C-alpha cells in the first residue's frame, strides 16, 4: 500500500497483518471477531478486543487516523484504488484483455512490475486472495509468453508441473530456441504425471502443440548445404522478427536473400506453422499465398485468428501487390508475422528493412573453396572472389567452372564473365541459371528512365557522388533513389557491383552511348581535377584531399594530359609517385616531361630520367629541382604568381642556406616561410618549413624544440594523410632520440619511418630512415649491423642520394674501419669522404670528413697530423656556430684520448 506517494512501512508484525487483512477485503467492513481470529487464531491474547484496539491505534498512527474507520461490529479501511498495488494489478489486467497485442504486452508488463514479492506474505488467513492473485499473475505471464515476450518459463513449469497451458508455451519456447528434444521430453513428462496423479491424458490443445513440434507445419525446403558467413545476419533478422511483424530482406540479385530467409524462418516456431510463398513466377500475390495456406475463402478472414510466419519470397516484380496484401493481412491478423525478400523495400508501415550485404572477402573465399572443392587459397582465388563482389550466386556459378577450367584460367577470363558463368544449374529457377539471367531479371523490372541511368552509371569507376551521377547520366533524384531501393546501386557512393557494371556497359554499347559517355566522364573528372587543384595549397587542403581520394578510380579511368597536370600536386602530397609517373610517362609537352622526371627522381628506382628543357610551367620546374635536391635546396621562382610561390621560394632559399651552413639566414627564411604558409592554410608547406626549423634547433642542441617541431609536423601529416612527410617526421624524432642516446626509441622510430616510406615506394625516405638505424647500431658498438645498413645504400646514394648522403655514409664506414683497426680502409674511405664533402660546400660535412681522417691518422701513429685535422674541423664548426653536440662527440673524444 502507498500513502502520499510513499510506500507504507510497518515494522510490528501484528499491525502489518491487520493491514493485510483489511486490504484483502478490498475496503469492505471486517468484523472484530473475524480480525481477532485471523490475527491470533487459537493463541488469543488475554483481552483480545483491547489488544485489537491497540493494534488499530498503531495502524492509524502509521497510515493516518482517517483511513481506519470504526464500526460497532468491526473496522473498515478507506483508500484510493491507485494506492494499492493489488487493485492496480487487477485493473491493468482487465484493461489488457480488450487491447491490441502491442498495447496488451505493455499493460501486462506494467501490471507484473507491481509484484515485488509474494502476495500477502505470512498472512495465511488471506489464502483465497493469495491463490487468486497468484493465478492472475501466472495467467499474465502466460499471456506475455504467448505474445512473444521474453519470459522465463522453466522455473514456473517446475512449480506448476500440471498446468497444461504453461507447459505448452514452454514447449514452444524450447523449440524456438532449437531445443526440440527437450520440448518433446517435456510433453512426455507431463503425460506421465497426468496419468499417475489424475489418470487422464493431456488435453487436445497440448497434444496439438506436441504434434506441431514433432512434425512442424511448414512447406520450407530443407537446405542442401550449410549457410556460410551469415551468422550475424540470421541473428539480426530473428531479433527483428521478435520485435516487429514485417521484416524485409533487401539486396541485389544473387546476394542470397532467399537462402538467408529460409535459414531465419527455419528457426521459428508458430502454432499455425511457417509457410513459404515463392512469387518468382506469380502473377497475383493473393492467389499464391492462398494456395500455400490452403485457404478457399477470404484470406483475411482465414488468418484473423492464426499465429503463423509467412515468407514472401522474390517480391520485386510484384512489389505493389505484395505491399498491399502485407498491409491488409498485418492489420487484420495480430498473430501474423511476415518475412519478405525483395530487391527493394515494400514501404509499408512498421516495415523493418534489413539490407543483405555481399559476403565479406573471407566468407566469399570459404564459400568458393567449399563449392569448388579446393584446399589452397591462392592469389587467383582471392581475385575471383573479389571481382565477383562476394555475391553467392556468382561464386556458386564460378565454382562449377573450376573443374573444367582451373582457377588460374577462370580468373583470367572474368572480363568475359557472362560467357564464362553460363553453365546449366539444375533444380534452380531460370533466372539463377546464369549470371546474365540473374541480372536480366533485375533489368527487366526497371522503367526506361531507370535503365538509361543504370547503363550510364557503368562509365564510372568505384562509384561517384550524387552531383556526378546527376551530371553524367541526366538522372533525377527520384530515379537514383529507386535504383538504390532496387539494390542495383549501392551507397554511400552511387556504385555498381562489378557484374552489374559489366552488364550495364554492354547495354550502354547496345544503345550506342559508350564513347559519348566516356567523353562526358573524361570531361567531368578533368574539370573536377582542375577545380581541386585550386584548393590543394590552402585552407581547404584536407577537404579536397579527401574528395580526390574518393575519386581515385574515376581519375584513373578518365586519365588524360590535362587531368594529369591538374592532379600532379595531389599525387605528390599523397605519395602516389608510381601512379603519377605512369600518368606522365608519354607526355609530349616539356611541362609533362618535367613532372615525369620529378616523380621518377622521387621514386629513385630504375634508369635516371632525361631532364627536359623548354617552356616548362614554373611550378613543374620547381618540383623537378625539388625532386633532384630534396632537403638541400632547389630552384626558386623567378616570378612568383601568388603568395604560395613566395612562401615556397622562401622555404627553398632556407634549405639552400642550411645546406651551406648559413644558419642565421636559414632560420630567418624558414620562419618567414612558415608564417606565410600558416596564413595560407597549407599544411604540407608548414611541415616543410618546420623541417628546416627542426634541423636548425637540432644543430644548436635545442633538442626539446626540435622534437616539438617534429611532433607538430607528424600531427599535421597524419591529419592530412601525408605518409611521406609522416615518415620524415618519424625519422627526425628518431635522430633526436639518437642524439640523446636513447637507442631503443631511436630504432623504433626509424623502423616505423622506413616501413611507412616503403609503403609509398619512396626510396629517399627509406634510405633516410635506414641510415638512422645504421647510426644507432654503430653507436651501440654493433659494427657489422651498422656496416650492412650503410653498404646497402652507398651505391644508391652515389647515384641518387647526392653528395650530402654519400659523404655521411663514407664517413660512417670510415669510422667503422678505424674502430676495427683497419688503417688503410679508414684512410681511403675518409679521403673519399673529404672529396665528396667539399662538393657539398657544407662546413659540417667537411668537418666530419676531417675528423674521420684525424682518427685514421691517429690509428696510424701520425698524432701531429691528426691533431691538425681536428683543429681544422673544430674551426670549421665554430665558423658556422655549430659545435658538436654531446650526443655526437663520441668519435672526436675517442680520437683526442688516443692522441693524449
Automatic annotation (TrEMBL):
Record's compositionally biased regions (Basic and acidic residues): 888-900
Pfam families from the UniProt entry: BTAD, Trans_reg_C
Regions recorded as binding DNA: 1-79
Keyword terms: DNA-binding
Region (Disordered): 880-900
InterPro entries (UniProt xref): BTAD, OmpR/PhoB-type_DNA-bd, P-loop_NTPase, Sig_transdc_resp-reg_C-effctor, TPR-like_helical_dom_sf, WH-like_DNA-bd_sf
Stretches that traverse the bilayer: none
Residues of the OmpR/PhoB-type domain: 1-79
Database matches in PANTHER family: HTH-TYPE TRANSCRIPTIONAL REGULATOR RV0890C-RELATED, REGULATOR-RELATED
Family: Belongs to the AfsR/DnrI/RedD regulatory family.
Protein known as: Winged helix-turn-helix domain-containing protein
Organism the protein comes from: Kibdelosporangium philippinense
Amino acid at each position: 500500500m502507498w500513502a502520499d506517494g510513499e510506500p507504507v512501512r510497518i515494522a510490528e508484525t501484528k499491525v502489518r497483518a491487520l493491514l493485510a487483512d483489511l486490504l484483502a477485503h478490498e475496503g469492505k467492513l471486517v468484523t472484530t471477531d473475524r480480525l481477532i481470529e485471523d490475527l491470533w487464531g487459537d493463541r488469543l491474547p488475554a483481552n483480545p478486543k483491547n489488544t485489537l484496539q491497540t493494534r488499530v491505534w498503531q495502524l492509524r498512527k502509521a497510515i493516518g487516523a482517517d483511513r481506519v474507520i470504526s464500526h460497532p461490529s468491526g473496522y473498515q479501511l478507506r483508500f484510493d484504488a491507485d494506492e494499492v498495488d493489488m487493485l492496480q494489478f487487477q485493473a491493468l489486467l482487465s484493461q489488457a484483455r480488450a487491447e491490441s497485442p502491442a498495447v496488451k504486452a505493455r499493460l501486462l508488463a506494467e501490471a507484473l512490475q507491481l509484484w515485488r514479492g509474494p502476495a500477502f506474505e505470512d498472512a495465511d488467513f488471506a489464502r483465497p486472495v493469495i491463490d487468486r492473485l497468484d493465478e492472475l499473475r501466472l495467467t499474465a505471464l502466460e499471456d506475455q509468453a504467448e505474445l512473444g515476450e521474453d519470459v522465463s518459463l522453466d522455473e514456473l513449469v517446475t512449480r506448476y508441473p500440471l498446468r497444461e497451458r504453461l507447459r505448452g508455451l514452454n514447449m514452444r519456447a524450447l523449440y524456438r530456441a532449437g531445443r526440440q528434444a527437450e520440448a518433446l521430453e517435456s510433453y512426455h513428462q507431463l503425460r506421465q504425471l497426468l496419468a499417475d496423479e489424475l489418470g487422464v491424458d493431456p488435453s487436445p490443445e497440448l497434444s496439438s502443440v506436441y504434434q506441431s513440434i514433432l512434425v512442424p507445419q511448414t512447406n520450407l525446403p530443407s537446405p542442401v548445404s550449410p549457410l556460410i558467413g551469415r551468422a550475424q545476419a540470421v541473428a539480426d533478422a530473428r531479433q527483428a522478427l521478435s520485435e516487429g511483424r514485417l521484416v524485409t530482406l533487401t539486396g541485389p540479385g544473387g546476394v542470397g536473400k532467399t537462402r538467408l530467409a529460409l535459414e531465419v524462418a527455419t528457426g521459428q516456431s508458430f502454432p499455425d506453422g511457417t509457410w513459404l510463398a515463392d512469387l518468382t513466377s506469380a502473377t497475383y500475390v493473393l492467389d499464391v499465398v492462398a494456395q500455400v495456406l490452403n485457404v478457399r475463402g477470404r484470406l483475411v478472414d482465414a488468418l484473423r485468428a492464426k499465429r503463423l510466419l509467412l515468407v514472401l519470397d522474390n517480391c520485386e516484380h510484384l512489389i505493389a501487390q505484395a505491399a498491399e496484401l502485407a498491409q491488409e493481412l498485418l492489420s487484420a491478423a495480430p498473430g501474423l508475422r511476415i518475412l519478405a525478400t525483395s530487391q527493394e523495400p515494400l514501404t509499408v508501415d512498421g516495415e523493418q528493412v534489413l539490407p543483405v550485404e555481399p559476403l565479406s572477402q573471407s566468407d566469399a573465399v570459404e564459400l568458393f573453396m567449399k563449392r569448388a572443392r579446393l584446399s589452397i587459397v591462392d592469389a587467383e582465388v582471392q581475385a575471383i572472389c573479389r571481382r565477383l563482389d562476394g555475391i553467392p550466386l556468382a561464386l556458386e556459378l564460378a565454382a562449377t567452372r573450376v573443374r573444367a577450367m582451373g582457377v588460374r584460367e577462370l580468373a583470367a577470363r572474368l572480363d568475359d564473365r557472362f560467357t564464362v558463368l553460363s553453365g546449366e544449374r539444375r533444380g534452380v529457377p531460370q533466372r539463377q541459371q546464369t549470371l546474365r539471367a540473374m541480372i536480366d531479371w533485375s533489368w527487366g523490372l526497371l522503367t526506361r528512365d531507370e535503365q538509361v541511368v543504370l547503363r550510364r552509371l557503368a562509365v564510372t569507376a568505384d562509384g561517384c557522388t550524387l552531383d556526378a551521377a546527376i551530371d553524367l547520366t541526366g538522372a533525377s533524384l527520384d530515379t537514383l533513389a529507386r535504383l538504390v531501393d532496387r539494390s542495383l546501386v549501392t551507397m554511400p557512393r552511387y556504385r555498381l557491383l562489378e557484374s552489374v557494371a559489366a552488364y550495364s556497359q554492354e547495354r550502354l554499347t547496345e544503345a550506342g552511348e559508350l564513347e559519348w559517355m566516356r567523353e562526358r566522364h573524361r570531361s567531368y573528372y578533368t574539370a573536377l581535377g582542375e577545380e581541386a587543384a585550386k584548393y590543394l595549397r590552402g585552407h581547404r587542403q584536407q577537404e579536397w584531399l579527401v574528395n580526390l581520394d574518393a575519386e581515385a578510380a574515376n581519375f584513373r579511368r578518365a586519365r588524360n594530359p590535362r587531368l594529369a597536370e591538374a592532379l600532379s600536386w595531389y599525387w605528390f602530397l599523397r605519395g602516389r609517385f608510381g601512379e603519377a609517373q605512369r600518368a606522365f610517362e608519354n607526355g609530349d609537352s616539356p611541362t609533362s616531361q618535367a613532372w615525369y622526371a620529378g616523380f621518377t627522381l622521387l621514386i629513385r628506382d630504375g634508369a635516371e630520367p632525361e631532364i627536359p628543357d623548354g617552356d616548362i610551367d614554373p611550378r613543374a620546374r620547381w618540383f623537378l629541382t625539388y625532386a633532384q635536391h630534396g632537403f638541400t635546396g632547389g630552384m626558386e621562382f623567378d616570378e612568383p604568381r601568388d603568395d604560395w610561390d613566395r612562401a615556397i621560394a622562401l622555404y627553398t632559399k632556407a634549405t639552400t642556406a642550411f645546406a651551406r651552413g648559413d644558419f642565421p639566414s636559414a632560420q630567418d627564411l624558414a620562419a618567414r616561410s612558415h608564417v606565410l604558409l600558416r596564413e595560407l592554410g597549407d599544411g604540407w608547406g608548414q611541415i616543410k618549413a618546420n623541417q628546416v626549423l627542426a634541423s636548425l634547433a637540432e644543430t644548436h642542441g635545442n633538442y626539446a624544440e626540435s622534437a616539438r617541431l617534429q611532433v607538430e609536423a607528424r600531427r599535421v601529416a597524419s591529419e592530412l594523410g601525408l605518409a611521406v612527410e609522416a615518415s620524415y617526421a618519424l625519422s627526425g624524432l628518431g635522430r633526436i632520440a639518437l642524439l640523446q642516446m636513447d637507442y631503443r626509441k631511436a630504432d623504433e622510430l626509424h623502423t616505423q619511418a622506413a616501413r611507412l616510406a616503403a609503403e609509398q615506394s619512396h626510396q629517399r625516405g627509406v634510405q633516410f630512415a635506414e641510415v638512422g638505424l645504421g647510426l644507432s647500431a654503430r653507436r651501440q658498438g654493433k659494427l657489422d649491423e651498422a656496416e650492412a645498413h650503410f653498404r646497402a645504400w652507398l651505391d644508391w646514394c652515389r647515384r641518387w642520394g647526392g653528395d650530402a648522403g654519400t659523404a655521411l655514409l663514407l664517413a660512417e664506414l670510415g669510422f667503422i674501419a678505424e674502430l676495427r683497426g683497419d688503417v688503410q680502409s679508414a684512410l681511403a674511405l675518409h679521403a673519399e669522404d673529404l672529396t665528396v664533402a667539399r662538393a657539398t660546400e657544407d662546413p659540417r660535412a667537411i668537418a666530419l670528413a676531417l675528423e674521420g681522417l684525424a682518427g685514421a691518422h691517429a690509428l696510424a701513429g701520425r698524432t701531429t697530423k691528426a691533431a691538425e685535422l681536428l683543429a681544422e674541423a673544430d674551426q670549421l664548426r665554430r665558423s658556422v656556430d655549430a659545435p658538436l653536440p654531446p650526443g655526437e662527440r663520441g668519435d672526436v673524444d675517442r680520437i683526442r684520448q688516443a692522441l693524449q
